[in-house]
Amino acid sequence: MSLNHVRPWRDIYRRKSRQIMVGNVPVGGDAPIAVQTMTNTLTTDVAATVAQVQAAAEAGADIVRVSVPDEASSKALKEIVRESPLPIVADIHFHYRRGIEAAEAGAACLRINPGNIGDEARVKEVIKAARDHNCSIRIGVNAGSLEKHLLEKYGEPCPEAMVESGLEHIRILQDNDFHEFKISVKASDVFLSAAAYQGIAEATDAPIHLGITEAGGLVSGTIKSAIGLGNLLWMGIGDTIRVSLSADPVEEVKVGFEILKSLGLRHRGVNIISCPSCARQGFDVIKTVETLEHRLEHIKTPMSLSIIGCVVNGPGEALMTDVGFTGGGAGSGMVYLAGKASHKMSNEQMIDHIVEQVEKKAAELEAAAEAAE
After folding, report:
1. 3 pLDDT band (50/70/90 cuts)?
2. What is the C-alpha to C-alpha distance for residues 299 and 52, in angstroms, rounded to an integer?
3. Taking the CB of the first residue and of the last residue of the chain, which one, N or C, has fewer CB atoms within 10 A?
4. Phi, psi at residue 130, to the nearest 5°?
5. Around Cβ 284, how many Cβ atoms within 10 Å?
6. Position 317 pLDDT exceeds 50
C-alpha cells in the first residue's frame, strides 16, 4: 500500500496477497513490487547469459528468467545459477522434464505454461521436484497458447478462458499441497490482459506477476506496457512485473522501474523531470537530458532532478526537486538545491556541475539513511 495522506488522490491500495519466496526475493504481501526481465541469449552460452543477468542486476532487476528449451540448457542452467547475483526463474514449455531438471539445477522458480506442459500426472512430477528442491512455481497462462478444451468451450481467447485456465492449474498445485506459487495471465492485447488480470485478482489470493506479452519494440512496447501495467498497478494489482520488449533486457528493467516510479511504488536512481523544450529554451534541453541520463546511470539513491528550459515552469518544478536547473539568458541559468534558488551557472559548465551536485546530494541522502538505521 502506497499512502500519501497529504495528497490522498495519489494513494494506491495494493491488493492483499499471500507472500512467497523466489530465491531470496519476497513476492506478494507487503513486499516491494519486484522487477523482472528475461535473457535472450542462448542458454547454452553460459558466459553470454551470465553477462546479461549481471547487466540486468546492475540496472536494478530483482529476478531474471532464463529459457530452458532442451537438456543442454538444463545442464548450462546449473552453472548460470551458481554465477548469478539474482534468483533465476526457469522458463519451461512443452517438456515437463526440463522443469524437473531445472529444479535440480538450482532454479529459484519454475515458470510452467498450462497450455503446453502436459497432463496432470506430468505436472505432479514437476511439483514434486519443486518441493524437493525448494522452488516456487509461476503458473504462466498465455492467450496465445490456451488449452484446446478451453478454446473449444469459449471459441477464442477471452478473459474467462484465461482465468479458468489459471484456476484449473491452481487447483492441481493446491490438491498436491503446494502453495508457493504465483500466477500470470498474459496477452499481447492490452484490453484482454487487463480484464484477465482483474478476473484472476478477484479469484485467488496468490501473488500476481504482471506482463503484456510480446508487447513490441522499445517505443511501442513501452507505451503498450505502460498503459496496461500502469492501470493494473494503479488499481493495486501486481506483485512482480516484466516489460516484454524486443530490445535489450536492460531496457526492460529501465522501463519497468520508470512505470513503478511514476506511480510512487518503487524508488531507485534519479527521476529526471524535464520539459519537451521550445523556442523559449535557454539551452539545448533535449541533448542535456540525454547526456545526464547517461552520466547519472550509476546513481542508485532515489532522488529528483528538474531540467527546464525557461522560467515559465522552471522555478515551480525546481521547488519540488532535490536539484534543479532552469534556463535563463545570456548563456547561463539558475541552479536550485533542495527547492531553493542557489546560484547561477554557465550553460557550458552546467552538465558537469549538475552531475557533481547530484552525486553530492546522493551521498548526503545515503549518509542520512545509514544514520537512521
Report:
1. low
2. 20
3. C
4. -65, -45
5. 14
6. yes
Residue type at position 113:
N
Half-sphere exposure of 300 (CA within 13 A, CB side): 6
Would you state the pLDDT for residue 4? 60
The length of the chain, given as a count of residues: 373
Helices (H) and strands (E) in the chain, counts: 12, 15
The rounded distance, in Å, linking the Cα atoms of 209 and 33 is: 9
| Cell numbers for 363 | 551521498
Is 80 exceeded by the pLDDT of residue 5?
Answer: no
Report how far apart, in Å, the C-alpha atoms of 371 and of each of 364, 365, 366, 368 are: 11, 10, 9, 5
| Element spanning 327, H or E | strand 323-329
C-alpha–C-alpha distance, residues 124 and 130, integer Å: 10
Which DSSP letter does residue 15 get? Answer: P
Task: Report pLDDT for 9.
Answer: 87
Query: 315: Cβ–Cβ under 8 A, 6 or more apart, which residues?
Result: 326, 334, 336, 341
- Identify whether the C-beta of residue 183 lies closer than 8 Å to the C-beta of residue 163: no
Q: What is the dihedral of CA 265, 270, 273, 275, to 10 degrees?
A: -140
What integer is the mean pLDDT of 300-312? 95
Model confidence pLDDT, tens digit, residues 26-83: 999 999 999 999 999 999 999 999 999 999 999 999 999 999 999 999 999 999 999 9
In Å, how far are 69, 80, 154, 263, 316 from 51, measured between CA atoms? 20, 10, 43, 30, 43
